[in-house]
Amino acid sequence: APWIFTLLIAPFGMQGGFLGVTLAYQLGQAQVSTEAIAGLIALSYLPQTWKFFWAPVVDLTWTRRGWYFSSLLVSAAGVVAMGWYGADGQAMGALTVAVLAASFASTVIGMAVESLIAHSTPDAQKGRAAGWFQAGNLGGSGLGGGLALWLIQDRGLSVTASALSLAAVCLACGAPLLRLAEPALDAAHAKLDFRAHLRTLAADLWSLVRSRPGALGMLICFVPMCTGAAANLWSPLAVEWQATANTVAFVNGAMGGLISALGCMVGGYLCDRMDRKLAYCGFGLLMAAVTVLMALAPR
Length: 299
Known about the structure:
This protein is mainly α. Helix content is 74%, strand content 0%. Helix 1 runs parallel beside helix 5. The chain is globular. The relative contact order is 0.17.
């Protein structure tokens, strides 16, 4: 059932939401500069940039279930460490290490779930599965940030206690994988050793980059359109818009996560029924229009 992927990938989004919403807001209130917060968030994306290097490890060694649960434990521990060191902005060095460790673990979570989708979903349903996957990613981000910030502001929990609560939710999201049948490697991959796979991967990447469709695909991957990355700065800029913590938790957290999840499912449905390149451009233009409206609207 595709909705299982929503739960499995949710910890990936929760970890990012906790950093981008809860910690970003708390650090902003602690007078940490917006530039420093933006740098910390940008640094969290560094492992995401290079994860294709260790993707073959997840595909060819151990099991997807084993990689998922081990990385889930590390990611949950990283969230707790982020809450511990990020409470007042006085330990930015230790917080940076915790952010990098949690982000690295989240890349393995993502690859394990993506591998399950690739090997267990028929081609005709991949758009739908991708929609549920992204719903869990973005919905988890909203839930992680909004829930943790709400626990701090309305329930009086410390930043560390809210991080512990979020870590417990992350661990619970892995429960469906205990009952999910893991697809076996096909015969060709089963006979392929790790070094041979790396050589094949390098050759495939080189031929891909040299081809016209491959170059276009690489360009699309690096274009800011449809990334939504600027949303990571809403929380530290909340003071300039006179936005309260509850407003941040509602807009960036609960409601933003719900709407994003709904949009992902609608987008996945449409991508199975229209040209996907046209869908990408259309969604990008819609996002650009919203950005212009936000720029023109009063603070």
